[in-house]
Design goal:
8 helices, Double Stranded RNA Binding Domain, 14 strands
Length: 212
């Protein structure tokens, strides 16, 4: 339904609604009053819908499942953010090295790699790292933790990227295509190895043609 064609108009922002109950619910977005209280933690909300979403924190309810790795999320926004791991969408680019990231927060952390400081130290072996994510992955060497589990064959991995690569065995997805022969691969390093073995001479010829 088009909210701009409804009979009931909000006096604050001009939006229209099909019935007065929708208008009343919408009106609470313009109010500081918090009508709905969580019976677990007593946190209060202006809208009942937001309270229902919040309650998933306590219930553990997770309605949104990733079709690639079967990870589940309480909020659709978190699933959407997670999907960038599989789609490879990385709109945030480092101006220093051109490395791209799916989230601005990851780019911000990455920028620390361009400094000489290593602020993050492993408490087990004293090895130091520039990035907190690198330290987190490293500690799994000591703990043996493999948090990324395939929902099809139960194989587990240390890194999310390793699970993404593995999942392509089951899905048959091959997103990395050779521009010289159109052969496709499931992993980027497989594509690079193929180009070195099959097209090393051709790649040199292309470089020479560009320099002419």
């Amino acid at each position: 339904m088009n909210i701009h064609m409804g009979k009931y108009e909000c006096t604050e922002c001009g939006k229209r609604f099909g019935n007065k109950y929708q208008l009343v619910d919408h009106g609470r977005t313009h109010s500081d009053e918090e009508f709905f209280e969580c019976n677990v933690c007593s946190k209060r909300f202006t809208r009942l819908k937001v309270l229902h979403i919040h309650s998933r924190i306590h219930s553990g309810e997770k309605l949104h499942r990733c079709d690639v790795c079967c990870k589940v999320f309480s909020w659709s926004a978190n699933l959407k953010k997670h999907m960038s791991i599989h789609t490879g969408d990385k709109p945030f680019k480092c101006l220093v090295c051109n490395k791209a990231f799916s989230e601005s927060s990851k780019l911000k952390v990455h920028m620390q790699s361009h400094t000489e400081e290593k602020l993050y130290e492993c408490y087990m072996c004293d090895k130091q790292f520039k990035l907190p994510g690198d330290l987190k992955v490293h500690t799994r060497v000591h703990t043996g933790e493999k948090p990324y589990k395939c929902c099809i064959c139960d194989r587990a991995f240390v890194r999310a990227g390793d699970l993404t690569n593995h999942a392509r065995i089951h899905s048959g997805q091959k997103p990395y295509e050779c521009v010289l022969c159109n052969r496709s691969f499931s992993r980027s390093n497989s594509l690079q190895r193929h180009k070195r073995r099959a097209h090393s001479n051709k790649a040199d010829e292309l470089k020479q043609d560009k320099n002419v």
